[in-house]
Amino acid sequence: MTSDRRVSREIVERFHNAFEKHRHEDVDDPISEGCVLENTAPAPDGARYAGREACLAFWKGVASSANLIFKAEEISGMGDRGIIRWQPRRSEREGDWVRGVNIMRVRDGKVVEGLG
Length: 116
Fold this sequence. Notes:
Elements: H1 3-20, E1 31-39, E2 47-50, H2 52-63, E3 69-78, E4 81-89, E5 100-107, E6 110-115
Parallel strand pairs: 1-6
Antiparallel strand pairs: 1-2, 3-4, 4-5, 5-6
């Protein structure tokens, strides 16, 4: 595994673990000052968050939600990209979850872009 690929995977894995463990404070470190987040909600076009503080406010709100259970299906790195295939669950009941994907871009050990 190349260095960029390994670093990208490690950063997005650490980012995802903050959601699985509901440790919103762990989202702080891997997010860059110029980060941009594009989210799928609200439909149909989603929302765009620009800047570290805007991205952190959104992600920390999600990570601290006691009503969501996050499960990674796969985390991988490809160059400066990290990909997280995940399931947010409202419960363990059948059909009470969806699948999603986050494509993260990493530069200098920090997330600079999140597309979900």
